[in-house]
Amino acid sequence: MKFAKYLLIPWFTLGLYTVLSVYNGATGIIKYQELQIEREKVLENLYQLQAINQELRGSMDALLYDPETIRIRARELGYGERGEHFVRIVGLPGGRPRELRPGIIRTAVVHPSNANPNWAVHRTISFCAGLLLLSLFLVVDLLIKPESS
Predict the structure, then answer these.
(1) Into how many domains does the chain fold?
(2) Long-range contacts for 129-134 (Cβ within 8 Å, ≥24 apart)?
(3) What confidence tens digit (pLDDT) does each residue in 41-66 have?
(4) Is residue 44 part of a domain?
(5) Nearest to 133 by CA among 23, 18, 5
(6) Domain range for 98
(7) Mean per-residue pLDDT for 61-86?
């Protein structure tokens, strides 16, 4: 029965590896939290794109149905009616049309830590802990002599 405790070492090593993998593995809790943060960023970007879409839809409707908006936009682009003369004053703000930016494309960032899973590190830590437990059991068995009756 003295050697039965040595059977605990592989189970301890396997359990430690499992705990490390669940917490910090390629699909572990920490990686899941990082994905949640990226998901929040993408959802925020989606809401911004929806707001920009509503603005552009309103601008499109105005350009389709409102002749005054068409005239203003044409003047911003440099067009005019017959007989009009333009005076350009260089250096004043607002003379150029605003730049159209329909949206921001957001991509998920792949961190270098995501490219290499931590399974090798987890195995090494688990193996070293198993060796430490084995050496502890051996030292205890060698130092403590059983009393002879």
Answers:
(1) 2
(2) 129/12, 129/13, 129/16, 130/9, 130/10, 130/12, 130/13, 130/16, 133/8, 133/9, 133/12, 133/13, 134/6, 134/9
(3) 889 888 988 998 999 899 889 889 98
(4) yes
(5) 5
(6) 30-110
(7) 84
